[in-house]
Amino acid sequence: MNAPDTWAGLCRSVLLASLATTAFIVPTEGVRAHHVLGRPAYSLNEDSNTPPSMQIEARIGSYFISMMAYPAFVRPGEPGRIHLYATHEKTGQPYTGKVTFSVRDDVLFGTAENENLGIQPPDDAVYRQGIVFKEKGEYIVSAFFEAGGEPYTIDFPMTVGDPLPVRSLFIGGLVLATALFLAFAARVLRGRKRRRVA
Amino acid sequence: MWPDSFSGGLICSIDGTMRMVHPGMPFAWAMLVVIFMGLVIAWSLISPRPQPRTPLALSLAVVPGSGPLVRALLASHWPRTLLRIVVAALFLLAIAAGFLGTPIPERNLATVLTWNVWWSLVIVSVFFVGSAWCSVCPWETLGSFAVNLRLWGRAVPDPGLGLKVPRLLRSLWPAAVLFAGLTWLELGFGITRDPRATAVLAVVMVALVIAALALFERKAFCRYMCPVGRTIGAYSQLAPVALRPVDPDLCLNCETLDCYHGSSTVEPCPTFLTMGRLQQNTYCLSCTNCAQSCPKENVSWQLRPMGNEARQSARPHLDEAGFTVVLLALTTLHGVSMVPFWDNWITELAMAIGDGQMRLGAFTVGMATSLVVPAALFIFAVAATRWLMGSAVSYRRLFALLAFAALPVAFTYHLAHNVGHVIGETQGFGEVLANPFGSASLPLSATDKHLRMLLMLDWYPMIFTLQAGLMALGFWLAIQVLRHRGASLDDSGKAPGGLGLSPMLGFVGTTSGFNLWLLTQDMVMRL
Question: What is the three-class DSSP state of A141?
Answer without folding.
Answer: strand
